[in-house]
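note to self: dont lose this again. the chain is below, predicted strucutre after it. 69 aa total, dont forget to put it in the shared folder this time
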Amino acid sequence: MLDDPDAVFIDMRNHYEYEVGHFENALEIPADTFREQLPKAVEMLREHADKKIVMYCTGVFVVRKPAPG
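---
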């Protein structure tokens, strides 16, 4: 999947973790909190609406958070 040109990888970790290492070409969502990241991610991904979206993080804390709204 990493080589799939139709996939966009979104790193949902904090800035420090992104800087330490991330998948090649993964997008970073600049925000101070996960809650701030989601609307920014939606906006950034509008241009990739026809792509497969892969979001990743480091643990269940982010995965278990419900989307706003």
